[in-house]
Design brief:
By secondary structure, the protein is α/β, with parallel strands linked by helices. The chain is built from 13 helices and twelve strands. It has helices spanning 2-10, 17-24, 29-46, 90-103, 119-131, 146-154, 169-175, 181-193, 210-220, 250-263, 273-276, 281-285, 315-324; strands spanning 49-59, 107-112, 135-139, 159-161, 197-199, 202-204, 226-233, 268-272, 291-293, 295-296, 313-314, 328-329. The strands form two sheets. An eight-stranded parallel barrel has the order 1-2-3-4-5-7-8-9, surrounded by four helices. The protein has a two-stranded parallel sheet with strand order 10-11.
Length: 332
């Protein structure tokens, strides 16, 4: 049965939700290998170019209350994360962006907390677009208004990310009691309506079911400008309410990445190096991912900790892995 489903995938035939579930339920090593090989062949058919994305964390000051139960980004949430509050100056943002461009990384993600109605994102976009040739991804979740989204469009922001993380509303409400799923959906729709490429993905291992994961991937197709799906595995941060929640097994992350590639043959699948683990980027590339995020070069001037893990992916190490697999890192 698995062979029949994968044959459909290779031939771009319609695959049902039940069939996708069978792929997520694979437990034999031989079948998992076939799934991975199928996903890679689909990606490589379109391109072997692997995008690299670095990051500037604009601010960890966040007004969401109660806090997201897994957050190690906001002040005082985790001694492993950004424990002290910060707000990067325009000069710091500029220096970081220039260092990223000088390192040859083509793209920067500018992310931050809530409470600014997108003003911090607009400001960072202006700095990056006025002074570099970098592509920019804005990632401030639902902290955007129609006004700020339109400003981002005017500034030619390349991509705006608003992860739904899970579309199981009960799970969402439990782990993110200070937000609503509907607000995030409305933000995604606003980005799409403005004609900006949308990035929106899954946080695997929050307590959602396999059926939830398939339904989530299907739901994302509602957004016309969807161009990127981040797949993140849950990693507990020390001191947080979810510190003892089990991390998402690597195999579960790999299966959903492969299924995402089959469902969306040409889409950008993003894997943040902290949540997959810097040493595990090879696995994600071997299941069809084609964008590695939170990649930090040695010349980077700021302290940076990954959202999901304090450890990030080193640029030289990441490029070495890409080259070893016969793929091509996208550089400036």
């Amino acid at each position: 049965m698995i062979d029949e489903i994968l044959k459909k995938a290779v031939n771009n035939k319609k695959i049902s939700d039940d069939e996708f579930l069978q792929l997520l339920k694979i437990n034999k090593e031989e079948d998992l290998k076939k799934l991975c090989e199928t996903a890679v062949s689909i990606r490589n058919k379109h391109s072997k170019l692997i995008k690299l994305t670095s990051t500037v964390h604009i601010t960890n000051k966040c007004t969401i209350q109660p806090r997201c139960k897994y957050c190690g980004f906001a002040p005082k949430t985790s001694t492993e994360g950004y424990y002290e509050s910060f707000y990067k100056t325009d000069e710091e943002i500029l220096k970081a962006a220039i260092s990223i461009e000088e390192a040859g990384i083509p793209r920067v993600s500018c992310s931050g907390g809530y409470g600014y109605k997108g003003k911090q994102a607009v400001n960072a976009t202006e700095i990056v677009k006025s002074n570099t040739s970098l592509e920019i991804l804005v990632n401030v979740g639902g902290d955007l208004t129609e006004k700020s989204i339109n400003k981002l469009a005017d500034l030619n922001a390349d991509t705006v990310c608003c992860n739904l993380e899970t579309i199981n509303e009960d799970v969402f409400n439990f782990v993110k009691p200070g937000e609503t799923l509907n607000d995030r959906i409305e933000t995604c729709q606003g980005v799409s309506d403005a004609g900006i490429e949308l990035s929106s993905g899954l946080l695997v291992g929050l307590g959602e079911s396999l059926e939830d994961r398939i339904a989530h991937l299907r739901y994302l197709n509602n957004f016309e400008t969807l161009g990127e799906i981040p797949i993140m595995g849950f990693n507990p941060y020390k001191d947080t309410p979810m510190a003892n929640h089990p991390p998402s097994p690597l195999e579960e992350q790999l299966k959903i990445m492969a299924v995402t590639r089959i469902m969306y043959p040409e889409i950008r699948i993003t894997v943040p190096t902290p949540t997959i683990g810097p040493k595990n980027v090879e696995y994600s590339l071997n299941v069809g991912a084609n964008n590695l995020a939170t990649v930090i070069a040695d010349n980077y001037p700021l302290e940076v900790k990954g959202v999901g893990s304090p450890v990030c992916g080193n640029y030289d190490d990441v490029v070495s892995v890409i080259n070893k697999l016969g793929l091509t890192p996208q550089t400036i």
